[in-house]
Amino acid sequence: MLTACTQAGDGGGGSRPPGSAKGASGSPSASAEAVPPAAPTKEADPARVPRTASAATALVRAVIADPELVGAGAVRATPYESDPGSWAVLGADCAWQRERLPRDVLATLTRYFEVPAKKGQKGQEATRLSATVTVHRTTLDAAWEQAGMLEEAMGCPQQTLSADERLTGLASSAFGWGENSNFYADDVLREGGECRRGTGSGSRPYHWTQATFGPVVVSVSSCGEQAGNEGQAVDPADSLTLMLNRAEDKIGRPVGRASGTATPSAGEGGA
Fold first, then answer.
1. Which are the contacts of 222, defined by CB distance < 8 A and separation ≥ 6?
2. What pLDDT does 18 receive?
3. What are phi and psi of 144, to 5 degrees?
4. Quick check: 211 and 189 in contact, CB under 8 A?
5. 15-55: per-residue pLDDT in tens?
6. Cα–Cα distances in Å, from 142 out to 74, 83, 133, 179, 229?
7. Measured by CB atoms within 10 angstroms of the end CB, which terminus of the chain is less buried, N or C?
8. At what angle do helices 236-251 and 53-63 cross, to 10 degrees?
9. CA–CA separation, 265 vs 257, rounded Å?
10. pLDDT tens track for 32-41
11. Which pLDDT score, from 0 to 100, does residue 257 have?
């Protein structure tokens, strides 16, 4: 499980959901009328997936979100990036801590963002966001991470992120392709609840989503109201699907095509 609230608890195939693409004006594009595919149209190409830590690190940095991709006036938080030599692990006491990368992980990175409160809303805290990209050695390893995260979430409905940060009332769910508007990944994990920082801070909405494309696992989270300071909604799911698109462009191929066949870029057509 990944969280926007703390560096300690940042946690460990598809295209943008049909109908969610927006044009420059912010209105739904013509693709909003497209019929969702019955099955994924892209898959990871074994010939293009990273085999070394250095190649995986380059892929992580090519895929992970930045403030521009997050949008809605997002800025870098402090710290901006996690230690790439470690990742977060949920202990038996439901508290998160950072540990060295396991053997099945080639590279991982989390970035942290803040969206300042809307102008004129005094006392409103900034919305905290995070994005994580992890590259495993194999697609099966990524699937095992998905299964483990769901099991952890079910066993710890309340979690400690740090000395003064915690999550409460967590509820998790998993959706395969075509279930509950999931037309962008083979399987998606979603979690919701409340986040709280310090003793004087009230509870705030918390949302987390994680999905995979081949050996790549991407996740996003938010802690706070989903309202940006530029009149735009803060929707972490947009960042998630855009990161999945980036992963497809780097290591994907149309389903059924020969190995080494690149995924067509936007506007080039193809499957």
1. 4, 127, 128, 129, 205, 206, 207, 208, 234, 236
2. 32
3. -65, -35
4. yes
5. 333 333 333 334 344 445 567 888 889 999 999 999 999 99
6. 29, 20, 11, 20, 36
7. C
8. 140
9. 15
10. 556 788 888 9
11. 86
